[in-house]
Design goal:
One of its GO terms (cellular component) is plasma membrane. By secondary structure, the protein is mainly alpha-helical. It contains 6 helices and no strands. The longest helix has 41 residues.
């Protein structure tokens, strides 16, 4: 009896998660385009890093939509792929930040601040939308972690814009890139560990 009662609840949760993912995908794809243009225009590594993050999240949401309704093993495999992609993103941003230490000039802070605030609003809305799914399987958890990290990263971008405006230095931009890299690497480890545990459980 309990299994029959739980089935409709699980189906409803999956459908709600699907709707949330479609909204998140649309928001992230739009912000990716906006931040690429703004990042190039302002010369901001933080905005370009955030744009790449939006692109990665768009791909992650698309993968999550693809595996919905599939066997749990595919959810775990998708989470593993997303976790590894977050790790690659973190390494890329960290490398770019180190390059900027030696080569970079100060970015244009007004564009950084305005676009950073828009990105923050977008990511807070997506994180709030996905908050209800934060305790699900590795696939759901990875989606929540991506959204949470984005919101935290946008706060850092806005702070960097204020720092660049006040100092005229590229160091705040570099510092934000390093923070975003660390967030991506930390989330990558969490998701990969949980995904591996779920894959082992499927094989047992």
């Amino acid at each position: 009896m309990s299994a029959h009662c739980c089935a409709p609840q699980a189906a409803a949760k999956t459908q709600a998660f699907r709707r949330a993912l479609w909204i998140a995908l649309a928001v992230n794809a739009s912000m990716f385009v906006l931040e690429i243009v703004a990042g190039v225009s302002a010369g901001s590594l933080a905005l370009l890093a955030d744009a790449l993050d939006f692109f990665g999240d768009s791909a992650n949401y698309a993968i999550s939509l693809l595996v919905l309704g599939m066997l749990p093993v595919w959810h775990a495999r998708a989470a593993m792929l997303k976790g590894l992609s977050m790790g690659v993103f973190g390494c890329f941003v960290l490398g770019a930040a180190l390059w900027r230490v030696w080569q970079g000039a100060a970015p244009e802070p007004i564009t950084m601040g305005v676009v950073g605030v828009l990105a923050l609003l977008a990511n807070v809305a997506v994180a709030w939308l996905l908050y209800a799914f934060r305790e699900g399987n590795a696939n759901m958890r990875s989606v929540w972690l991506c959204s949470r990290n984005d919101a935290l990263g946008n706060l850092a971008v806005v702070a960097a814009a204020v720092g660049v405006f006040g100092t005229g230095s590229h160091w705040p931009d570099v510092a934000v890139a390093a923070v975003m890299a660390s967030l991506a690497l930390t989330a990558s480890v969490q998701v990969v560990v949980q995904a591996r545990a779920e894959l082992r459980g499927q094989q047992a």
